[in-house]
Amino acid sequence: MGILIKMRGTIESILVIIVARIGDTLLTTPVFKAIKSRYPNAQLTVLAHPKRMEVLSNLAYIDRLDSITKRSAPWRGWFSRKKFDLAIVFGAEPELISYAQRTSTKVAAFRREGMTENPRLLKVALPHGAIHAVRERLLLTTALDIQANDLKLDYIVSPEEKAVARKWLDEQGIATAHPLIGLQTLSFPTKSHRNWPLSHFSELIQLTIDKYPTARFVILGDEASRIHAKGLAEHFPVAVSIAAGTMSLRHSAALMSCLDMYVGVDTGPTHIAGALGIPMVSMYHCAYPGRYLAPLDNPLCAVIEHPLTGTTVDIAASMADISVASVWNALDTLLCSTADIDDPRTHT
Keyword set for this entry (predicted)? Predict the structure, then answer.
């Protein structure tokens, strides 16, 4: 996809709308960086889902962060002048695109069936074949002559959040445990086929403590993850602590930033781990290959693809087919290779 339009005149204000889940929201951070690099003096406003926008907090290149939904959008932007020189909309919801057209001089969005014609709306074609999710999102900026040089995801933990995480680790008696490994055992309910069997996680824990007797594990996620992984804590009462369901998303992410290692299935916290840049092993279902979703430019990320990847996208394929041995080998290799890296718990 080449440049479709060169923006004329001074660009002083830019809007990006991204109403999506945690992972999809974070996958857009390279877009924000590219925009700010191309227009460093422009004010960048990002409107995101009210329950997901917090993952974008503290990012220096976002000047204003607020929320929007397809339900609130139709009521907004009717009585103000054009506030933005350019708007980029991710998603197909006509309510969001209409809001952007009311408030912006020029709007860019991916072409979807049924989109109305508007001379101010630049409709960018989606790729014909599968490409990495970050590169797909950057097609919109490329069409506007905005190039990206940094493909890494970003997430910033505040000092206050870090302090809460350290306090929790101290209360669990694992503040100085090494290696400290986080486990994300569940994806969200509608994508349960992406879950790796709990019995496999149990075998992985045993293999790890056999070689690394001082290893400790933290179960991450929400209340469902806490209930799901309760058996692991009961089977390994010394080695496993459960943080899932006990803290906010931001504090959970701060806890992740203190880990030596992360192991998880394809879900929002795995994208957060990638954005934090911590050593990680991530597992992907053949319907959603890691080649299109795993963190880019992250040498500390070991991607474990389902053995049927490239042959089928059937969600009936079982994640049990990803062997414990393959995950253990990746985990052990990363633990050995990162042994000399500074303890992340000492970083502010």
Answer: Glycosyltransferase, Transferase
